[in-house]
Design brief:
Elements (H helix, E strand, L loop, with lengths): L10 H36 L1 H12 E6 L6 E2 L5 E13 L1 H4 L2 H12 L5 H9 L9 E4 L4 H9 L7 E10 L3 H8 L2 E3 L2 H4 L12 E3 L2 H5 L1 H5 L3 E7 L5 E8 L7 E3 L3 H10 L5 E7 L4 E8 L13 H9 L8 H4 L9 H10 L8 E4 L2 E2 L8 E2 L7 E4 H7 L2 H21 L22 H8 L5 H8 L9 H12 L10 E4 L2 E2 L17 H15 L17 E7 L22 E8 L6 E7 L5 H43 L2
Parallel strand pairs: 2-10
Antiparallel strand pairs: 1-8, 2-3, 3-4, 3-5, 6-7, 8-9, 10-17, 11-12, 11-21, 13-16, 14-15, 17-18, 19-20, 20-21
Helix pairs in contact: 4-5, 11-21, 14-16, 14-20, 15-20, 16-18
Pathway: Cell wall biogenesis; peptidoglycan biosynthesis
Organism: Kushneria konosiri
Subcellular location: Cell inner membrane; Cell membrane; Membrane
Length: about 650
C-alpha cells in the first residue's frame, strides 16, 4: 500500500488569515489615525483661542500704563501740587514664588532694618489680584537701583519702575486743605475700579486730593510687549495710551494762605476767608499743620506716632472740622432774627444792670461787663457786645424759633460744595436734647445759646459762611474750593443752595451792617483797637468762648488757669461794607479775648486782600485822569 502525502502548507487558509489580519490592522490604523485627526481638530480648531492665548502669554505680556495725575494750582496759577519723577520697587506675587524668601533677600541686599520684613510683606498683599504689581518701596536711590539690578536674578517678581510721584511745594501751610495721596490700601480697593488703577500705586486720601480723586487720577492705558523665556522685554507690540488726570485750579490765594499761616504761627487755631459774591474760599488755614509730603511715600512709624500723639493735634483740620462755641459773633444774626420775628425794633431798648434774670428765678446771668452798660438799643448792643440785651431777646424768641432761624445761616449743617470732611457743627433744639439726652429743655439753656454758648457748636468754615451771608444781606452762595476742573469752570449758582434770607424790611440789613461797622470804628466798639487807621469800611464782631463753665459766684481769672483752660478768641468780619470783597472768620484756641487777639489777625487778612486792589484802582484812576488831560491838551492844541 502506497503512503499518503502530508500537506505542509494551506495557502488558501493562510490567505484568509492574512486578509483578516490586514483588515484588523487597517481598521486599527484607521481608528488611530481618526483619533489623531480628531485630536488635531480639537486642539487646532475647537480650542484654538485657548491655546493661542497660552502661546501669546508665553511670549507676550500686557502691562498697565498709569496716567499722570493732574496738577493743582491756586487762583493765580501758582503750583500747589505737582508730580516729580522717581523710581519705585514693585513685586508681583504670582511671579515671586516664595514671597517671604524674596523679601528676606531684598532686605539683605538693600541693607534694610529687619523690622521692615513685616511692613514689606503687608505691602505685598495690598493688591487683591496676585498678578498686579504691589508697591514695596518708593523713591529709590541710585545705589539701591544698582544693587537690585546686579541681584535681579535672585529676586523673581521684583521690578524697578519709573513713575511720577506727588510733591507739595507749600506742604506745611496747605496740608489740611490739599490733603495728600498715599499708597492704595485694601480698604481703598473696595471703593475704586481696580482695573482703572492697574499700575497706579497712589490715591487721594484726604482733602482736595480725596474729593476730586476721579478727576485728578485720569484713566489707565495698557501696552502689549513681547518677552523672551526669562521675561525680558524684546519689543512693544501695541499700546492704548492712558488719559492723564485733569488739572485743578483752586479759588485759594497762596499768598493769603501763607499770611494766615504766619499770623497763627505758634498758636492753635484756624482762619477761613471767603469771597461773598462767589462763595470762593480764598484761604482756609488750620494751625498747627504738618508736612503732607511725608505721607506720599509712606511716613515712618516713629514720625507718624509723633504727629498722632502730639497734644496740639496737627493732623486735625480745625478750619473745616473743628467745633467751637461761636460766642458773641452770633449777635448780629440774633438781631436779624429778632427783627424778622417782630420781637424787637431797632429803637427798642433794654436796661442792663450787669445781669439778666428769668422770671421767678433768682439766678443771675451776667453780662461780660459786671457793672452793666445801662440802657442799650440794638445797635449799641451789637457795638459793645452786650449780653443782657441778647439774653432778653433769646428768652422772648425761645429755642425753637432761635434754632430754626440760625439754620438759615447754615449753622448745624454742612453747605460747602467740595470741602472734604467738613463738619456740620451743632445747632441745638428742644427735640435734639430730648433725642440725645432724653431730657427736657430748660429756659436758662436758651439764654446761653442766645449768646453763642451752651450746646451751640460751629466750625470756622460755618462762621465764615454765615458772615458772608450777612455781608450779602441774606444772599446765599455755597462756599467752594474749585475754580476750574480741567476746562470746566466752577461758578454759582450751585445745586442745593439754601434759600436766601429775606427780611420784611431790607433796610434792617443796613442797620445791622452799621452796627458791625461801629464795632470797628465806634467810640465804644469792642474791636476799635483793631479798627484804627482803616482805609476802607469794615464790619466785624468779636467773640470770647468759654472753655469751661463758671459757677454762679465765680469770676474768670486767666492768670490762675493753665493755658488750655483760657477762653477761645473769635472774630468775624467783612469788608468793604458797601461792596463786600472778603469775609473772614478767625479763631485762636485759648487765646483769650476775641477783640484783643483774633481781631488784629482778621484786620491783617482784610488789609492784605483789599489794600492792593484799592491801590490798583487808584492807579487806574490816576492813569485815566492823565489820559483825559492829555486828550484835552491835544484837542486844544496845547
Amino acid at each position: 500500500m502506497r503512503p499518503r502525502r502530508a500537506t505542509l502548507k494551506d495557502s488558501e487558509q493562510q490567505a484568509r488569515i492574512f486578509r483578516r489580519r490586514s483588515i484588523v490592522a487597517a481598521l486599527f490604523v484607521l481608528i488611530m489615525f481618526s483619533g489623531l485627526i480628531g485630536r488635531m481638530v480639537w486642539l487646532q480648531v475647537v480650542q484654538h483661542d485657548i491655546f493661542i492665548t497660552r502661546s501669546d502669554k508665553n511670549r507676550m505680556r500686557v502691562e498697565p500704563l498709569p496716567p499722570n495725575r493732574g496738577l493743582i494750582f491756586d487762583r493765580n496759577h501758582e503750583v500747589l501740587a505737582e508730580n516729580r519723577p522717581t523710581y519705585n520697587l514693585t513685586l508681583v506675587r504670582e511671579q515671586a514664588g516664595d514671597v517671604g524668601q524674596t523679601i528676606d533677600r531684598l532686605i539683605n541686599i538693600l541693607g534694610l532694618p529687619e523690622d521692615q520684613h513685616e511692613v514689606l510683606t503687608q505691602r505685598s498683599r495690598e493688591r487683591l489680584r496676585s498678578y498686579e504689581p504691589a508697591l514695596l518701596l518708593s523713591d529709590l536711590t541710585e545705589e539701591q537701583i544698582a544693587e537690585i539690578a546686579v541681584n535681579r536674578y535672585r529676586l523673581p517678581g521684583v521690578e524697578v519702575e519709573a513713575q511720577l510721584i506727588r510733591y507739595y511745594p507749600d506742604g506745611e501751610w496747605m496740608s489740611h486743605v490739599l490733603g495728600y495721596v498715599g499708597r492704595i490700601s485694601q480698604e481703598d480697593q473696595q471703593r475704586i475700579d481696580t482695573s482703572n488703577y492697574a499700575g497706579t500705586h497712589f490715591i487721594g486720601k484726604t482733602g482736595i486730593e480725596r474729593f476730586y480723586e476721579d478727576e485728578l487720577h485720569g484713566k489707565a492705558g495698557v501696552k502689549r510687549v513681547e518677552t523672551n523665556a526669562r521675561g525680558r522685554v524684546l519689543r512693544e507690540i501695541d499700546r492704548t495710551p492712558p488719559q492723564p488726570g485733569k488739572n485743578l485750579t483752586l479759588t485759594l490765594d497762596s499768598k493769603l494762605q501763607k499770611l494766615g499761616h504766619d499770623l497763627l504761627k505758634g498758636k492753635r487755631g484756624a482762619i477761613v476767608a471767603i469771597e461773598p459774591a462767589t462763595g470762593a474760599i480764598l484761604a482756609m488755614v488750620s494751625e498747627p499743620g504738618f508736612d503732607n509730603n511725608k505721607f506720599v511715600t509712606g511716613i515712618d512709624t516713629k514720625s507718624y506716632a509723633a504727629l498722632r500723639d502730639d497734644i496740639d493735634i496737627p493732623l486735625y483740620n480745625r478750619a473745616a472740622r473743628g467745633q467751637y462755641p461761636p460766642a458773641s459773633t452770633v449777635k448780629p444774626y440774633m438781631a436779624s432774627a429778632g427783627l424778622e420775628y417782630g420781637l424787637i425794633t431797632p429803637s427798642d431798648t433794654v436796661y442792663d444792670p450787669g445781669y439778666y434774670q428769668l422770671p421767678n428765678d433768682s439766678r443771675r446771668y451776667r453780662n461780660w461787663l459786671r457793672w452793666g452798660h445801662g440802657r442799650v438799643d440794638m445797635k449799641r448792643a451789637i457795638t459793645v457786645s452786650n449780653d443782657t440785651y441778647f439774653f432778653t431777646l433769646a428768652h422772648r424768641m425761645g429755642i425753637d424759633r432761635l434754632s430754626s432761624f440760625m439754620h438759615k445761616y447754615g449753622f448745624g449743617e454742612d453747605h460747602s460744595l467740595d470741602v472734604w470732611g467738613a463738619g456740620s457743627g451743632l445747632m441745638p433744639s428742644r427735640d435734639w436734647k430730648r433725642g440725645r439726652y432724653n431730657q427736657v429743655w430748660y429756659p436758662g439753656e436758651t439764654l446761653s445759646v442766645g449768646i453763642g454758648q451752651g450746646y451751640w457748636l460751629a466750625t470756622p468754615l460755618q462762621m465764615a459762611t454765615a458772615v458772608a451771608v450777612m455781608a450779602n444781606k441774606g444772599k446765599w452762595v455755597r462756599p467752594h474750593l474749585a475754580m476750574e476742573v480741567g476746562d470746566k469752570k466752577i461758578a454759582p449758582p450751585f445745586e442745593n443752595t439754601p434759600d436766601d434770607i429775606k427780611l420784611d424790611n431790607s433796610h434792617w440789613w443796613d442797620l445791622i451792617h452799621d452796627a458791625m461797622e461801629n464795632v470797628m470804628t465806634g467810640s465804644e466798639g469792642s474791636g476799635r483797637a483793631s479798627g484804627r487807621n482803616l482805609q476802607y469800611r469794615m464790619g466785624g464782631k468779636s467773640g470770647t468762648a468759654q472753655v469751661f463753665t463758671l459757677g454762679q459766684k465765680e469770676k474768670y481769672n486767666a492768670s490762675e488757669l493753665e493755658e488750655r483752660l483760657h477762653d477761645h478768641a473769635l472774630f468775624t468780619a467783612f469788608a468793604p461794607v458797601d461792596d463786600p470783597k472778603i469775609a473772614v472768620a478767625v479763631i485762636v484756641e485759648n487765646g483769650g479775648g476775641g477783640s484783643r487777639v483774633a481781631a488784629p489777625i482778621a484786620r491783617e487778612m482784610l488789609d492784605a486782600w483789599i489794600l492792593p486792589t484799592m491801590k490798583s484802582s487808584e492807579e487806574a484812576q490816576r492813569h485815566a485822569r492823565q489820559n483825559e488831560n492829555t486828550a484835552q491838551r491835544i484837542a486844544t492844541g496845547d
